[in-house]
Specification:
Layout (H helix, E strand, L loop, with lengths): L4 E6 L7 H14 L3 E5 L12 E3 L38 H14 L1 E8 L1 H12 L4 E5 L15 H22 L2 E6 L6 H9 L4 E3 L7 H13 L5 E6 L11 E3 L5 E3 L2 H13 L3 E5 L11 H19 L5 E6 L2 E6 H4 L11 H8 L7
Parallel strand pairs: 1-2, 1-4, 4-5, 6-8, 6-11, 7-8
Antiparallel strand pairs: 2-3, 9-10, 12-13
Helix pairs in contact: 1-8, 4-5, 6-7
Bound molecules: 6-O-phosphono-beta-D-fructofuranose (F6P).
Length: 359
């Protein structure tokens, strides 16, 4: 009998922990006597000329601690994933047809899609078209309602906190205000956790619109109390009350979140007369080695995904709830964002250690 095969691909923005998923899925597949086929460059690898590799234990050995993804990834391409997958497929019929051929020619029993919200939406459309797919959520933003945690988040938080440690010393020497912009899209998880762990004095998040006057007051209050510097962490999606989120446009028409640190920095400088410096951490938060927690979470997600394929629970996504992996329907997972609740205990605790949210 021909050996059964599982396919796997990584899609959308990368994050630390993806290689841990690949390594674990490879081992779990081999344990079943199945072969794991890795498609390169996201969904594009499914189309002719197919680019795939056998992910055996030799190829996946020694990759767990590496950032990025062995398979490569793209967040554009022929599998357009906009709109709600439940209301019909947006993947062109021709592309779906070619994908079906790939599944047949390679004897793929099920495909593991490791991706964020957009890629999981594409996975859902494939499932609705009858293709055997399971999902593994990944994003540094940790903003999916369907799972308590995504891998990549802890590594991003570690980057923010260790950057704050570094910036703190130079800010203190010069008695400056330091404004650090962090990722997270429209959720403040990275800013809140990273800021808390790194000893920030002011944290500005999308869920709690801030006032420039309050931020400036806090800087001056701290100075009056003898503080040598003020560390401000601002999430890229944060916005002032009655204001807008800051965006950067690029020559290729992309309209990305970004620029808020400069806006906040200028306002603080003008309102307080203090010397201000800004620092945008950007993709440093997505690169480098995954933390131990992300290696473990990635490993557990990889194992669970193979188990879901073996059990033919297609259309489901690996989730992490109450310290265990479990499965939820992809249809219930996509488009449901988890944001910081301003009444959350974590916010309350942050306020208890005198962190201001500028509100
Ligand atoms: O969703 C992950 C994320 O890193 C966001 O925090 C950030 O806004 C975005 O992706 C950046 O995307 P890109 O790598 O396409 O610039």
């Amino acid at each position: 009998m021909e050996r059964k095969r599982i396919g796997i691909l990584t899609s959308g923005g990368d994050c630390p922990g993806l290689n841990a998923v690949l390594r674990a899925a490879s081992r779990a597949s081999e344990k079943l006597g199945w072969e794991l086929i890795g498609f390169q460059d996201g969904f594009e690898g499914l189309l002719a000329p197919m680019t795939h590799i056998v992910l055996d234990r030799h190829i996946t050995a020694g990759i767990m601690h590496l950032g990025g993804t062995l398979l490569g990834t793209v967040n554009k391409g022929q599998f357009i994933s906009r709109g709600n997958g439940r209301q019909g497929s947006f993947i062109p019929a021709e592309v779906l047809g070619k994908t079906r051929q790939t599944f047949q020619s390679l004897n793929i029993h099920g495909l593991i899609v490791v991706g964020g919200d957009g890629s999981l939406n594409t996975a859902l459309q494939m499932h609705n078209a009858g293709l055997p797919v399971v999902g593994v959520p990944k994003t540094i933003d940790n903003d999916l309602e369907a799972t308590d945690m995504t891998f990549g988040f802890d590594s991003a938080v570690e980057c923010v906190a260790s950057s704050l440690d570094r910036l703190h010393t130079t800010a203190t020497s010069h008695k400056r205000v330091m404004v650090i912009e962090v990722m997270g899209r429209h959720a403040g998880w990275i800013a809140l956790h990273g800021g808390l762990a790194g000893g920030a004095d002011i944290i500005l998040i999308p869920e709690i619109p801030f006032e420039f006057s309050k931020v400036a007051e806090e800087v001056l209050r701290r100075e009056k109390e003898g503080a040598k510097c003020t560390m401000v962490v601002v999430a890229e999606g944060a916005k002032p009350k009655d204001g807008r989120v800051s965006r950067l446009s690029s020559p290729n028409g992309e309209n990305r979140l970004g620029g808020i640190a400069e806006v906040v920095g200028c306002e603080i400088g003008n309102r307080t007369g203090k010397e201000v410096r800004t620092c945008v951490l950007g993709h440093l938060q997505r690169g480098g080695a995954p933390t131990m927690l992300d290696r473990i979470l990635g490993t557990r997600f990889g194992i669970k995904a193979v188990q879901l394929i073996e059990e033919e629970k297609f259309g489901s996504m690996v989730s992490y709830k109450n310290h265990s992996t479990c499965a939820v329907p992809i249809s219930e997972a996509v488009h449901k964002m988890r944001r910081v609740d301003p009444q959350d205990q974590l916010v309350e605790h942050a306020r208890a250690v005198e962190i201001s949210f500028g509100d």
